[in-house]
């Protein structure tokens, strides 16, 4: 703060020093003026200037320090009172700007809430014709046409589901219900939804669950599994298998989902959970880059650790490590 204070007033300080130097030059050139007397005058002037600058520093900086420590959410009534006309001008400009920002923030918040509510309503409305479309597809007799229609229906269904959960993510803490969840039923439900896609690609599942129950939220855990299984099926080669296993390690349930697809480029691995990231090697026009990002966001409040191992051309293994039940209950305050 001292450095900034002096830099801001450097022009005034230089002017004073220049005037004192000018006084010394005049005393040197004018024999009628005693050099010693002028040096005494210059010394006193420097001392007075130093004292003046010091006093002004301690008088002016508290006001600006207080302003600097505040943020836009601070109540304007708690701002320091100005001590001079200049500070009053600064105070009025700052408070005016903050009031305008507060109004704009409140207005934007209302608009965002309205947009979110409208989008959520739209998603729920779209689900009705999607359900009707599913019934129509089920009655289709042509196996090839049925398979193609079901694949496109799944794409729309999962995109809507992803969008719905994306809007719910910021409020996930209010939406959790922690209970004993049966892994096998969740996994089989998600695989059943993907059945037509798996049949089309001739993909099978090898499921071996030695630890069948976890403490979690069924709805959000289903969403996490749905995204991971969708990716596994999407990037698996035709006729390959997806292996799903669970085990207990050090009192924690570990669930692994391994596919034998194209794998992930090593340079992409650190970024796969970033928002909007797709791939630097394989450019998929249909990829949104949101699936794994939402998985990571949903796993955090559930205290689920997600690790990834992948080799290009050999497949990808996703490992979900669930928290110890007692520790998780203490964290959640259950």
TrEMBL record:
Alphabetical list of Pfam families matching this protein: HATPase_c (PF02518)
Residue span(s) of domain Histidine kinase: 121-326
Chain ranges passing through the membrane: 12-29, 35-58
Entry-linked InterPro entries: BphY/WalK/GraS-like, HATPase_C_sf, HATPase_dom, His_kinase_dom, Sig_transdc_His_kin-like_C
Subcellular location field: Cell membrane
SMART domains the record matches: HATPase_c (SM00387)
Top-level class of the enzyme under EC nomenclature: transferase
EC number: 2.7.13.3
GO molecular function, a single term: protein histidine kinase activity
Keyword Transmembrane helix: yes
SUPFAM superfamilies attached to this UniProt entry: ATPase domain of HSP90 chaperone/DNA topoisomerase II/histidine kinase
Membrane topology: Multi-pass membrane protein
Superkingdom of source: Bacteria
Catalyzed reactions per annotation: ATP + protein L-histidine = ADP + protein N-phospho-L-histidine
Keyword vocabulary terms for this entry: ATP-binding, Cell membrane, Kinase, Membrane, Nucleotide-binding, Transferase, Transmembrane, Transmembrane helix, Two-component regulatory system
This protein's name: histidine kinase
Native source species: Jeotgalibacillus terrae
């Amino acid at each position: 703060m001292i450095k900034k204070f002096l830099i801001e007033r450097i022009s005034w300080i230089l002017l004073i020093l220049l005037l004192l130097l000018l006084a010394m030059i005049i005393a040197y050139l004018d024999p009628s003026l005693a050099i010693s007397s002028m040096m005494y005058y210059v010394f006193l002037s420097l001392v007075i200037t130093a004292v003046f600058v010091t006093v002004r520093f301690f008088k002016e900086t508290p006001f600006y320090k207080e302003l600097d420590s505040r943020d836009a959410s601070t109540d304007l009534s708690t701002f320091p009172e100005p001590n001079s006309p200049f500070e009053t001008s600064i105070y009025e400009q700052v408070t005016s700007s903050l009031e305008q920002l507060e109004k704009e923030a409140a207005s934007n918040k209302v608009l965002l809430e309205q947009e979110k509510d409208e989008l959520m309503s739209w998603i729920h409305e779209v689900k009705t014709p999607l359900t009707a479309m599913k019934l129509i597809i089920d009655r289709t007799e042509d196996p090839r046409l049925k398979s193609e229609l079901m694949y496109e229906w799944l794409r729309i269904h999962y995109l809507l589901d992803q969008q719905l959960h994306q809007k719910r993510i910021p409020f996930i803490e209010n939406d959790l219900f922690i209970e004993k969840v049966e892994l096998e039923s969740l996994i089989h439900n998600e695989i059943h939804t993907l059945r037509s896609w798996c049949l089309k690609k001739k993909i099978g599942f090898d499921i071996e669950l030695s630890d069948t129950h976890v403490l979690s939220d069924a709805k959000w855990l289903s969403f996490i599994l749905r995204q991971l299984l969708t990716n596994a099926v999407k990037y698996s080669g035709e006729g390959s298998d997806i292996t799903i296993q669970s085990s207990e390690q050090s009192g924690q349930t570990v669930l692994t989902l391994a596919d034998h697809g194209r794998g992930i480029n090593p340079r992409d691995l650190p970024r796969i959970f970033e928002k909007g990231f797709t791939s630097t090697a394989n450019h998929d026009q249909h990829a949104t880059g949101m699936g794994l990002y939402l998985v990571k966001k949903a796993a955090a409040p559930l205290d689920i650790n997600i690790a990834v191992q992948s080799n290009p051309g050999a497949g990808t293994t996703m490992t979900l490590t669930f928290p110890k039940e007692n520790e998780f209950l203490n964290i959640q305050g259950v």
